[in-house]
Amino acid sequence: MFELFKVGFISISFLDIIDIALVSIIFYKLYTVIRGTIAAQIFYGLLLVLFLSFVAQAANFKAIGWLLKLISEVWVIAFIILFQPEIRRLLVLLGRSPVMKLFFKSDVSGVADIIADTAYELAQHQHGALIVLVKSVGIRGITETGEQINSKVSKSLLRSIFFPRSPLHDGAVIIKNDVIEAARCTLPLSSETHHDGIALGMRHRAGLGISEQADVVCVIVSEESGSISIAENGKLKRGLSKDILRSTLKASLKGTKERGIKGILKHIRKNNFSNDLYS
């Protein structure tokens, strides 16, 4: 490869510059994912070991180089174990990218209307509910923790599942496209215990937890207050009306570019929803 310049005994080529740039981008992205976590300190230690290993090889320190190489090989296994939550989070972020969504299309026609109507009726009776809608790739591991249903989604079926005396009312319902895959599923709990100064119950922590780990949108109906919440990308929105819930689900499941309250209100006005949004 054509040599651009030399720094001491090290020859630098155009390919080397590209290689260094790519490695720098990878490390920077890893840093942004784990920033503010305990794993960040471990990440700094790994960078130090890699830097010392590079210096030892450049200076031809065979004994130190052998020792650092041994540590580096052990670090590969330690890296996977220690950074398991961060690696999973990174893979989830990759799965949420627009490129991946080109390969995984969701048929969600009418599902948002059914979920919104069901959630509203459940809230009126203060029947708790936890509904997970898969946006791209499935969550088979979570689905397998519950009872397999594989039935077309409908309001009557969802209301039957979340009726308090139903044996399936505890846990979450998993919906992919327009099919209820399973009920009574166990979801991972979020480490967050409060939201805007209000303590989160187990149902809300479970909905928030699955949204942190998978590309899903989760609808939560509180059994205590009858309020409707939605969790997506590790963020929780509480106190939604039926119309706002419906428009939020449609915007999320269809990949609408308009985000936030302004986009939601614009979507509501466009579809001539009633002005009584907060009833």
A few lines on this structure:
This protein is an alpha+beta fold. The protein has helices spanning 14-34, 39-58, 62-82, 84-95, 98-101, 111-124, 140-143, 155-161, 202-213, 242-253, 260-270, and strands at residues 3-7, 10-13, 129-134, 147-152, 172-176, 179-185, 194-195, 198-199, 216-221, 228-232, 235-237. The protein has two domains: 3-95, no CATH class; 111-270, DNA integrity scanning protein, DisA, N-terminal domain (YojJ-like (1).
Q: Which strand order do you get reading across the main beta sheet?
A: 4-6-5-3-9-10-11
> What structural category do the secondary elements indicate?
alpha+beta
Q: Can you tell me the overall shape? A: elongated
Largest sheet features: 7 strands, mixed
**Average pLDDT level:** 77
The CATH C-level name of the largest domain is Alpha Beta
N-to-C SSE series?
A: EEHHHHHHEHEHEEEEHEEEHH
Strand content: 15-25%
Strand tally is 11
Number of helices: 11
Identify low-pLDDT runs. Answer: 256-268, 270-279
End-to-end separation in angstroms reads: 69 Å
Please identify, by name, the CATH architecture of the largest domain.
3-Layer(aba) Sandwich
Helix content: 40-55%
CATH superfamily of the largest domain: DNA integrity scanning protein, DisA, N-terminal domain
